[in-house]
Amino acid sequence: MSFPDLTSDLKARMPQLRGRLLANQPLADLTWFRVGGPAQVLFMPEDESDLAYFLRHLPTEIPVTVIGLGSNLIVRDGGVPGVVIRLGRGFNEIAIEADHRIRAGSGVPDVKVARAAADAGIAGLTFLRGIPGAVGGALRMNGGAYGRETKDVLIEARAVDRAGNVHVLSNADMHYTYRHCGAPEDFIFTQALFQGEAGDKAAIGAEMDKITEAREATQPIKSRTGGSTFKNPPGQKAWALIDAAGCRGLVVGGAQVSELHCNFLLNLGGATAADIETLGETVRARVKAQSGVDLDWEIKRIGVPA
Ligand SMILES: Cc1cc2nc3c(=O)[nH]c(=O)nc-3n(C[C@H](O)[C@H](O)[C@H](O)COP(=O)(O)OP(=O)(O)OC[C@H]3O[C@@H](n4cnc5c(N)ncnc54)[C@H](O)[C@@H]3O)c2cc1C
Questions:
Q1: Do 15 and 39 contact (CB within 8 A), yes or no?
Q2: pLDDT, block means (10 residues), the chain with 306 residues
Q3: Which protein residue's CA is at the shortest distance from atom 1 of ligand 1?
Q4: Nearest CA to ligand 1 atom 13
Q5: pTM of the shown model
Q6: Phi (first) and psi of residue 11, to 5 degrees
Q7: 270 close to 277: Cβ distance less than 8 angstroms
Q8: Is any atom of ligand 1 closer than 6 Å to the C-beta of 66?
């Protein structure tokens, strides 16, 4: 399967573009699930100004999708029409600032923010140790764990909109709720400023180790998965509803509901994106029938079916 190649036309329109543009680039290896088709165009900007230049000159009818480390993502088997943007090298800066603050580019893995904070004796950011995405994904998903979420530690975020304008958003501008960010859908986050607090290096290190151990014991972290599939409904646990509906271990094609943590879906090796999505929808239907609760997808699904 392949899309018409748009890259020569785009390069001609954007002579000053510095980032890489690739046609029909497979996306499966850029996601934890390792499934799905190609991006019609994959763009990896060099830095924020390159991203803004690209968006300013990109014809408005071409859709744009941004991905981070693909740890919360199903790419459908037919691939993603338009442009997929992945922020890499040029978004990897990380700096300790005064008053226990850390500034990080949106391509920085969350774990690196947690480690930098620990090394600097900054407490309050250890929860990021357990989230396998990058800063951009944490900003968009309001990623959280162990009773803390991005909203609790964010001072401000930078973003570029679809027209190429740069914005600085305060915490309130992000309109955060549980695993949701209310900033405009087209905003691509480029940087975050986090607030920590004074802490003891040894105590922070011990907390990080505890998180690592807890993750290994309770989650299939070495598997092809997308983390929690569904949001916890108010006052309830999605995994418990899934378990009660008899879905633990349920299989569709090459996809399975994890035996270890039944809000995780797994690619057993040969799954298609359709297998994983159908398994998720089967779980939703069974939970609805058993408990009357409508589970809401936390995992983002992008692209088109085969
Ligand atoms: C084993 C495992 C454990 C997990 N545990 C947790 C957990 O404890 N807590 C938790 O909250 N999540 C958890 N997750 C889910 C996931 O890691 C988080 O949602 C993470 O924040 C996603 O970041 P990412 O870079 O992988 O984003 P992706 O999966 O690539 O994208 C997720 C969403 O963010 C958007 N996005 C990504 N980057 C940007 C950007 N720069 N600007 C705008 N939008 C962007 C994408 O468009 C998409 O809608 C887990 C996942 C796995 C696989």
A1: no
A2: 94 98 98 98 98 98 98 98 95 98 98 96 96 97 95 98 98 97 98 97 94 85 93 96 98 97 96 98 98 98 97
A3: 221
A4: 131
A5: 0.97
A6: -60, -40
A7: no
A8: yes
